Prior knowledge:
By secondary structure, the protein is an alpha/beta fold. It contains 9 helices and 5 strands; from the N terminus they run ααβαβααβαβααβα.
Amino acid sequence: MSVEQYQRTVNSLDKEIAELEKKKAAADKKAADESKKAESVSISKNASATTIKSKLNEIDRHNKASNKAATESTEFGKKIADKRAKRNDAYLKLQKEQQKEQKAQQKVMDNIKKEYENRIAELEKQSIPSAITYNPTTDDVNSIEQYDVFISHAWEDKEDFVDELYNALTALGIKVWYDTSKIKWGDSMRKKIDEGLKKSKFGIIVLSPNYIAENKYWTKIELDGLFQLESINGKTILPIWHHLTKKEVTEYSPIIASKLAMTTATMTAEDIAKEMLELIPKVSG
């Protein structure tokens, strides 16, 4: 069974135990109430035989009701003990499964970290970044625009956040490489991305669930390129967390998770743009 299944079992047993305890408490109350009623029945010395018989029957009814409720309480107690034993067993199994899952997650994280560390080590040995393949032949190199930042993002996040960030950055005079404005119909996407990476001083990564999805080829290409630029040319990666937790970022890339990052959870696009305006001159200086 999985952690989720064991947790559901524990939750279900907790609910059943709570219901049984309510029923037991009600049975205990009824037993006590009926016992008091039996004790409260009084028979006067001058009562007739008929009255005495009636009073004794009333006492008998209350005693029987009290005994029945006490028996039910005992049965509920047995069921509660049985459920608690099952619950304790399920909880122990849940803890073992959680520990097992945590070890598996830690192993995955260790493997990811090792993979990135190996990747960075390989890149540091290279004299020229392998992902940066674009070599202009017909363009005048000196006329190619230099950008302050390159925005690496998933296209699904454009309307939600990235378009707004781009507008906020450019409004402050920051030169931004952004694929909607720099890639024209018929252009080679890979060439243009390579060009943008090479000609940008810093790389902004908008990390989101869409960005780290398994099927995201281009975001991985851009991230590899940014890692190469940072490791070889000393350029800086500036992460922004968008709808992601620290745990999710760490699972995707421990290296990125270790970097100082901004988050859309507490900052607007304008706030982030102002921070970037302050940060870029400081880093470049």
